[in-house]
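Why do we care about 3D structure at all? Because function follows from shape, and shape follows, mostly, from sequence. That is the central idea of this module. The next example makes it concrete: a single protein chain, its amino acid sequence, and then its structure expressed as tokens.
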Amino acid sequence: MAKNTDLARTLRKNSTPQERILWKILRNSNINNLKFKRQHPIGPYIVVFICKEKMLIIELDGGQHNEPDNIDKDAERTKYLETRGFRVLRFWNCDIDKNIAGVYETILKSLE
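And the structure:
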């Protein structure tokens, strides 16, 4: 587990531009006073954002996630997380870039 913790720490330091944009919205309990963490290890995976209180995970996907192998890996990852009681929201990086208001609204609705 220490390996995942170290990797998560590295990922936090090297966030993508889209992760930084969404983190500004999620951090400091900005949404409904709920605490989100970023780059959080769960089993063999590191999720991009998590709200443990609401059992919600938010993943951000770049274009490489649209390749057949990655589609299968993402489906396996989502299934693993869902079997542990989490709901998983996935957004494309372009959603963050072009429709952050829509992303925010989707997150709010999922937290109701």
